[in-house]
Design a protein that fits this description.
The structure is a homodimer. By secondary structure, chain A is mainly alpha-helical. Chain A has one domain: Orthogonal Bundle (Arc Repressor Mutant, subunit A), CATH 1.10.10.10. Chain A is built from six helices and two strands, in the order H-H-H-E-E-H-H-H. In chain A, a hairpin with a 5-residue loop joins strand 1 and strand 2. In chain A, helix 1 packs across helix 2, helix 1 crosses helix 3 and helix 4 crosses helix 5. The longest helix of chain A has 19 residues. The two termini of chain A are about 30 Å apart. At the A-B interface, helix 1, helix 5 and helix 6 of A face helix 1, helix 5 and helix 6 of B. The structure holds iron/sulfur cluster (SF4) (2 copies). The site of one iron/sulfur cluster has 10 residues of chain A, from helix 5. Chain B binds a DNA duplex through helix 3.
Chain lengths: ~140, ~140
DNA sequence: GATATTTAAGACTTAACAGGCTTTAATTAT
DNA sequence: ATAATTAAAGCCTGTTAAGTCTTAAATATC
């Protein structure tokens, strides 16, 4: 919806890393298992996250991946951008017309403009540390019936 | 983004029909040409719109398709629903977690909930007649340099 | 150094979406 | 009746996203 499946997996994986907050690297296989992500697929996604300096990878025994910087300095849009590539230069018309501009917009235009901005704002504002904290809290609550 | 390419074409085609507002049926080929939609593809989309009672088709010479009811009684969500199928029953978590509910939501949850609601509202509120009117106006403006 | 373990890299497979082609059925004008 | 015209229907092709497999490279441990 907002981003690809790959980006979703990437966010989940990085939340997991922020949750555990271990100074030691964490194995891809462990992350994959915890969040139920296809392991090999996650491995490949991790590669691109490493290339984009969001993760660092340590290979060999006791290897794994860890966050490249503190969780509170990593924002969602950075992850999405890294995995899905840069967003399109020109803003897209909701109904795919090509001859339109901002003069005399159709009723959809105002609405869509606001929504698009909200989405952007959401991805820019939220950082991993916050998310991980909240997910942890939530997990605690749900384990107490 | 919000809907498939097919749904986008469907919306464009139905706007065209609302624009021309002809009591006579309009040929698929004509619509396809006007909005630069692959004709055969649009033909197939039209079929599903007919099945969902948004269009009626008249075949044979002088045939074509027309809106099944007045344009101001057709809303975007009906078109999207018809082409892309019903939206998922359970509301989706933005980051794809499956163990979450509304108790102690993560920071994304509030934001996303609002955005999702705005999108839904946009699709529910806008009807074809409005859109067609605005697109017509816009075309007029853009033709006067 | 040998070995086990872990990510890196790239080829490969599968599935879904977008689009095209061709034939068939329905309708109307002649 | 017949020919022309139009949507309906089914199958084929290309593209992209999602997922799998195989081999190579790096590293810790013995
Ligand atoms: S005014 Fe409407 S049709 Fe034009 S670009 Fe904006 S959303 Fe699209
Ligand atoms: S609280 Fe956050 S993680 Fe849970 S369902 Fe809502 S958006 Fe998803």
């Amino acid at each position: 919806m907002l981003y690809s499946k790959s980006a979703e997996y990437a966010i989940q994986a990085m939340i997991y890393l922020a949750e555990t907050n271990s100074p030691e690297p964490v194995m891809i296989s462990q992350i994959a298992k915890a969040y139920n992500i296809p392991q090999q697929f996650l491995a490949k996604i991790a590669q691109t996250l490493v290339k984009h300096r969001l993760l660092v990878a340590i290979r060999g025994r006791n290897g794994g991946v860890k966050l490249a910087r503190p969780a509170n300095e990593i924002y969602l849009n950075q992850i999405v951008y890294a995995v899905d590539g840069p967003p399109p230069e020109q803003e897209q018309c909701v109904i795919g017309l090509d001859y339109c501009s901002d003069t005399a917009p159709c009723p959809l235009h105002h609405r869509w403009k606001i929504i698009r901005e909200d989405i952007r704002e959401m991805l820019v504002a939220e950082d991993l540390a916050d998310l991980a904290l909240r997910v942890l809290e939530k997990r605690k609550i749900m384990n107490e019936p």
